[in-house]
Amino acid sequence: MEDKNIGIIAGYGKFPLICISELKFKGYSVKVCAIEEEAGKDLTGYADSIVYTSVGRLGKLVEFFKSEGVRDVIMAGKVRKTLMFKGVKLDLKAITLFLSLKDKKDDTILNAICDFFKKEGINVVPQTKYITSVFLPKGVASKRIPTKKEMEDIKFGLGAARLISAADIGQTVVIKDKSVMALEAIEGTDEAIMRGGKLANGGAVVVKVNKPDQDLRFDIPAVGLGTIDTLISANATCLAFETNTIVLDKEEFVKKANEAYISIYVM
After folding, report:
1. Rounded to whole angstroms, how far apart are CA atoms 166 and 4?
2. Which of 11, 17, 121, 138 could disulfide-link 38, Cβ–Cβ 3.0 to 4.6 Å?
3. 29 close to 14: Cβ distance less than 8 angstroms
């Protein structure tokens, strides 16, 4: 018999709310542990049960999910790595985990957290196991087809993006005329787009990729209405991303891109 209890570790953005809504529509009882430094307070009215806690309180996360009878957990929404450098207080379990890390790369941290939960009897499952409504099919998603020049920049940018994603540096590059304007690092996608757009002085192409052997339990690339706003502010003309990229507010996302005459290409 299928377990109808599902847990969510909620970070920043709309994805946690989308997950809650889709899971509840499918008949699940949704228990949310919201990261207080990141998650919005609007989640309270939607979850069947919710607690807010600091990103450094791993013990409280485990205690909450166990008390709610949760065995499967989805990580939904961003938790910024920069919080590590802002004096967040860690409990004993978090201190022990971080002292055991070989480095502080995103995948190293997240895999260690998943292993920690598994030892506690809680499985972090792929985001795609229960959530299916947030992806676009391969091909041109916008009314405007990428120009020949934009397609050349997409192809060029794909190689550069895969290099930095393989090194676990970032997943987004900004290209113009087959030249790299910006590479994403710890600052995040939007700031990389703004920096690259300023250097490109209009007409930039943004390419976002998955990591090699992308772990679908966490850190799946995502775009949304805010991404379109950033592209507009940066005077970028085209956005390309891979098929298992999460697209928040999918219909509105495509509509807004069309209104701004931005081409969306799904690789």
Report:
1. 36
2. 11
3. no
Q: Read off the tokens for 155.
A: 């192809």
Asked if 199 and 179 touch (Cβ cutoff 8 Å), the reply is no
Q: Please provide the DSSP assignment of 157-187 as one string.
A: HHHHHHHHHHTTS-SEEEEETTEEEEE--TT
Tens of pLDDT, residue by residue over 28-85, are 999 999 998 888 888 888 999 999 998 888 999 999 999 999 999 999 988 776 666 5
Q: What are the sequence ranges of the domains in the chain?
A: 5-124, 139-266
Which residues, 6+ apart, have CB-to-CB distance to 110 below 8 Å? 75, 215, 217, 218, 219
Cα–Cα distance for residue pair 197/262, rounded to 1 Å: 14
Six token digits for residue 2? 């299928």
CATH topology of domain 139-266: Cytidine Deaminase; domain 2 (3.40.140)
Give the relative orientation of helices 58-67 and 92-99 as an angle to the nearest 10 degrees: 120
pLDDT in tens, 11-22: 888 889 999 999
